[in-house]
Inverse folding.
């Protein structure tokens, strides 16, 4: 599930279609079993460490919920009161935590590559919960899972990723997974927020949003990051909305079957209007619910006895 072994999930870039579909099908089976009130306890007796060096709500809580539903237990490190604040190195922090005997670690960090470092340091499964501007594999999987659940497949489908592509680890995981599974991936946003060379990932840059929307099966809207607004990526929030916001007027020209996704948190009235975020085409809360199921599938395949990724 990673570059060198199958014990961890660090990125979607290096997974083939068989590996991606194995995880997606496992999630579908788990969702069906919960609908039928069957509760697998495949993590019984195991303890997972949630190591979040960045703020998180949906990802952290959904991993904690996923562990609990599979019969395991989780421990969250409070970084504000940890030895990291006292100057301890990441290496020493990880080795000390490893000595406590956790069965797996979920890691989020603002620097790209940290989950890979943790994986190379430890012998237990490591799950990347987002590293810098690199990848967010579990979010990418749950997005693709939601698309497949809604329309049966992503093969041959047109998917538009709209917004801040440059700083989005979600966009990168989406692009890698969708292209591997045969989707046509398009990106749109201010030119300053489209990374150079994105075409090498297989994505097509859309120059005219209005002309592209009618052809899309899915539109995945990304958050505009207020913390970067003063860096000059676009003149004003109002101008961004006027040019790239997903408004009801723009959506009126879309396919009647189009699905609107957003990884959250949502800035209503900026990258997406409330009429769209709460409208009949949105599957945003489905993504949240599916986040737990997909993370259960990841944990089960990596950590359950006899499980393989």
């Amino acid at each position: 599930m990673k570059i060198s072994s199958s014990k961890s999930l660090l990125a979607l870039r290096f997974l083939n279609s068989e590996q991606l579909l194995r995880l997606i099908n496992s999630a579908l089976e788990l969702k069906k079993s919960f609908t039928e009130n069957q509760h697998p306890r495949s993590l019984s007796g195991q303890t997972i460490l949630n190591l979040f060096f960045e703020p998180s709500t949906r990802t952290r809580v959904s991993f904690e919920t996923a562990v609990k539903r599979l019969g395991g237990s989780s421990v969250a490190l409070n970084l504000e009161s940890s030895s990291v604040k006292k100057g301890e190195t990441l290496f020493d922090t990880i080795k000390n935590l490893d000595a406590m005997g956790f069965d797996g670690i979920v890691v989020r960090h603002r620097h790209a590559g940290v989950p890979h470092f943790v994986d190379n340091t430890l012998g237990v499964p490591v799950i990347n919960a987002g590293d810098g501007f690199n990848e967010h594999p579990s979010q990418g999987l749950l997005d693709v899972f939601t698309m497949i659940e809604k329309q049966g497949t992503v093969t041959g489908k047109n998917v538009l990723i709209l917004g801040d592509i440059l700083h989005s680890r979600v966009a990168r995981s989406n692009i890698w997974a969708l292209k591997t599974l045969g989707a046509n991936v398009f990106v749109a946003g201010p030119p300053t927020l489209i990374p150079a060379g994105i075409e090498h990932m297989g994505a097509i840059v859309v120059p005219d949003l209005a002309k592209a929307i009618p052809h899309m099966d899915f539109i995945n809207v990304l958050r505009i990051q207020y913390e970067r607004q003063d860096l000059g990526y676009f003149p004003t929030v109002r101008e961004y909305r006027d040019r790239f916001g997903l408004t009801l007027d723009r959506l009126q020209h879309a396919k009647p079957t189009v699905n609107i996704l957003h990884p959250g948190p949502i800035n209503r009235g900026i990258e997406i209007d409330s009429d769209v975020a709460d409208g009949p085409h949105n599957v945003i809360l489905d993504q949240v619910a599916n986040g737990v199921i997909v993370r259960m599938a990841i944990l089960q395949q990596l950590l359950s006895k006899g499980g393989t990724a």
